[in-house]
Amino acid sequence: MRRQSNKQITAILFTLAFLIYANALFAGFVLDDQDLIIKKSTFFSHPDNVLAIFTIPDATFNAATPYYRPLNTLSYMLDHYLWGLHPFGYHLENILIHALVAVLLYLLLVEVFNDWRLAFFAAVLFAVYPVNAEAVDAVFNRNTLFCALFSLASLLLLAKGGTKWTALSFLAYFFALLSKEPAAVVPFFLLTFAITSGGRAFRARWKALAGFFAILILYFFIRQHVLGVFVANESVPFSIARLKFMSAVIFENFRLMLFPFKLDANYSLLKIFYTPSKAAAATAGLASLVFFSIYKKTPAPVRAGSQWILWGLLPVSNIVMIPSAPVAERYLYTILPGFVLILAYALSALYRRKARATVAAGMLLTVAMGSRTFDRNFVWRDNMSLYRSVIRSDPGNPEYYYYLALSLYNAGRLDESRKMFESALKRQPDYPEALTYLGLICMKKGDLEGAKRQFQSAVSLQPDYAAAHAQLGVVYAEQNLFEQAEHEFGETVRLDPGSAGAHLDLAITLLRLGLYKKAQAEFINVLSLAPDNITAHNDLGAIYARQGRLESARREFRAVLTLDPGNSLAARDLSAIGMEANGGK
User: Fold this and answer.
1) What SS3 class is residue 197?
2) Whether the predicted pLDDT of 61 surpasses 50
3) Which residues, including other chains, have CB under 8 Å from residue 197's CB and lie 6 or more apart?
4) Over the stretch 108-156, which tens digit does the pLDDT of each residue have?
5) Max alpha carbon distance in the chain (Å)?
6) Which region holds residue 281: left if phi is over 0, alpha if psi is between -120 and 50, else beta?
7) pLDDT above 50 for 243
8) In the 8-state DSSP scheme, what is residue 86?
9) Which of 444, 468, 448 is nearest to 458 (CA)?
10) How far apart (Å, rounded) are the C-alpha atoms in residues 301 and 121?
11) How many CA atoms does the CB half-sphere of 388 hold within 13 Å?
12) Which of 51, 208, 461, 544 has the CB geometry, 3.0–4.6 Å to 549, for a possible disulfide?
């Protein structure tokens, strides 16, 4: 094919992939974006932290997780430099990466199979396929996009041959591994495809294969060193029950690939359940892929697609339990190239017999899939639309009523929020978090008795729920029932001793009860946890002044003025201490 035509096709693919997701440019941050991007904004503001990214887990900076994806985190730091916390730029990058993945898939298939029509059909289907929406629309899923981008790039560079391109393919593969764990299957795909394609092809590529496996071993060594764990902690022992669960997971992945129209942002354990029919369908699907992988007369594109799917399904089959979710549409993003390759081969074969009918069917399929994807982008616009979509698909799920209610509460839409919390409680009566927020809504509306009832119900359901004790203490304090308030704040401190706010509430209550020594101890606890707490410095200064410890009182009031130079009360108290020290002159 002429180079000029190739450029035109890649331009068409890039434009198509971009336009399908253009309405996602104006979406906000959702779900894990809060932890991975927003909460880390201070960290990202310091360029010196670039190197630190490679020595910490991906999910949080204060706890080891089985995720090591530094390249993804590094991209967020760059975005923070370019865009701050404006989501437009982050979404723009996701869409551009997706468009590049579609182009790379086309170029790879042309290079390997020398069939531009096959490559074009596959790349178009990949660009518009609805299950990809989750990976593209949610910024926190960029690790999946990077994994696909660099995996395909490594294969394309390898296919070009030559020492220089092979070395670059190793680098691209290392980047894929630093993006997301599923890239680990790429060398195994290369190995099986080389073997089943003929011994000669295998012998010609054994050095490159050895290089890929060497990169994989290096990655696992680095990952183990940083995380201290090889895989996620096993929450379910491997057993017959696990095999049944895996069959349900594999069935769901097949369903999403074959019928990408009943989509959901939350595939809970209640949805992923075993039935003999699901197990039979999953087994038949796997058996078909194995057959087409090893059958000598299988066309090369079908063999490659089958093996790509088989290896891609392995990391998401829950042979090792996935901590985040057992099934998710984003998991299919790196598997889908194999599936669309098989579909494209079928379309190419049909084209040779009925060209016009195939073109019409292909256009109809593209429009149908693209329309569904374009519509799906609106679901990922913000958390509220996302939670509503889950509720529509799973109306019995109390968790997402609670999440929606919480979003409405934070937006100040209290009446709507109350209805959603009540809906969550209808589906799960023992939901202390929902009861606590209903109490908070009552407080905002001035109904202290209603709030007290809700908080008491939450505490009775979960006696170790610190937040409910804290809010119940606030209600008692508002009602001047300070002894009851002291008890609740004391429980809060016992349950959450690291909370400066809990110690402060208890200290203020003890002060109101006239228990100055106990209050003094709690204010000191507050300052050990939050040295810049103005209220604690001020009230502790007042206690010291009452005890005649003027130098200590002076130190506390000066601390207040250092933190808040315009604090007139602290200035007055400091002046009064000075006068007292001078005999009242």
Assistant:
1) coil
2) no
3) 300, 303
4) 999 999 999 999 999 999 999 999 999 999 999 999 999 999 999 999 9
5) 108
6) alpha
7) yes
8) -
9) 468
10) 13
11) 13
12) 544
Structure tokens at 568: 């007139």
User: CA-CA distance, 130 to 373, in Å (whole number)?
Assistant: 4
Distances (CA, A) of 188 to 146, 260, 317, 333: 19, 28, 16, 18
First to last CA, the chain: 99
Reported as a pLDDT band with limits 50, 70 and 90, residue 374 is very high
Ranges of each domain in the chain: 3-383, 533-585
- What does the pLDDT look like over 423-470, one tens digit per residue? 999 999 999 999 999 999 999 999 999 999 999 999 999 999 999 999
Q: List residues bridging with 327 in a β-sheet.
A: 267
Q: How far apart are CA 488 and CA 467, in angstroms?
A: 10
Q: Distance between CA atoms of 324 and 257, rounded to whole angstroms?
A: 20
Euclidean distance between CA atoms 511 and 204, whole angstroms: 81
CB atoms within 10 A of CB 510: 23
Among all chains, which residue has been given the structure tokens 């208890």?
506
Which letter does DSSP use for residue 36 in this model?
A: I
Between helix 300-316 and helix 336-353 the angle, nearest 10°, is 160
Q: Evaluate the CA torsion angle 87, 89, 92, 98 in order and state its sign.
A: negative
pLDDT tens, 541-585?
889 888 888 888 889 888 888 998 888 887 887 777 765 544 444
Q: Residue range 506-511: average pLDDT? A: 93
pLDDT of residue 548: 85
